[in-house]
Design a protein that fits this description.
Blueprint: H1 2-19, E1 25-31, H2 37-47, E2 50-56, H3 59-67, E3 75-76, H4 83-88, H5 111-114, E4 125-131, E5 133-137, H6 144-147, E6 163-165, H7 169-179, H8 189-205, E7 208-209, H9 214-220, E8 225-228, H10 238-241, E9 244-247, E10 254-261, H11 268-278, H12 281-291, H13 310-315, H14 325-340
Helix pairs in contact: 7-8, 8-14
Length: about 350
Amino acid sequence: MKRLIYLLMFFVLISCGANTEKKEVLNIYTWESFVPDEIFEDFEKETGIKVNVSFYDTNDVMLSKLLSGVKEYDIISPSTDFIKVLRDNDFLEKLDKSKFNNVFENITISKDLLKTYDENLDYTIPYNLFATGISLKNDSVNPKYAEERSLEILLDPEYKSRMTILDDSREVIGMALQYLGYPSDSKNDNELQEAKDLILKWKENIAKFENVTYGKGLTTGEFVAVHGYQDVFYEIDEEEFKEYTYYLPKGAMMYIDTMAILKEAPNKENAYKFLNFLYQPENFVKVLDQFKTPSIFSHIKANKAPILELEYVLQNSTLPNALDDEAKEKQDKIWNEIKVK
């Protein structure tokens, strides 16, 4: 009888130990709808690693969270003009490239672009290259604006209160500066004042600054023109897409979004496993097909045509440089002034 009791106690202890065993996890901090859910699900099935995803809607929000001392995240998705400040604050892990299969050697982005933010790709892996544009409802807007790649639509009283602009100082001030012929990282007071005056004119004519629901508003007819990203169309089929136009206005801000591992990532090995999984051709093609962006990898070809071809994006947009401290302070100041007026 005693032996039976001891055996039962032994199995109970083993069971308790198994239940308290720490489950493998991965914590990702990224843009909403940035990685297809199917990729997370397939990774979890293959590895048993639980993926937890949190979202930000601007690079500034992401940076502020990290500067506040939060250390729970393993992977982030910074745009190129924020990589310098992330490196300056020692947030990024120097990547062990031996842990990746056929990724870095197949990147087609030019050295001229790479050297503006991470020349040797020691800290980041490019994820996509595109540009912020204007989306139009074809039956509601004069086609001349797309044909002329014009931002004058934002001043057209015919569409007053039926347009939106991103609620993102870097995107909006940068676009205004480039539209006026100035660099997006300007700290010249006269140039910044011109940009501010232009944005205030836009503000009088738009419905709001908006980052999240502008795509839905466009497809439901609430808005006829929105400033934002091409992923506004990722849930629209090819036939329905014919009802819309996405174009890059003069002054368009190019972006290269990336994947990076945080230096103090609590689950660093799992982060490497996920990124290696993500960039395998059979997985990454799902990114290209869902978001209709052009491939920047020579060995990965999309099954669906991109919204805009890579060459068009490269010719009609400019990759912004990182803001230095003075430019950041001045641009933040005028953005706050714009928002409160």
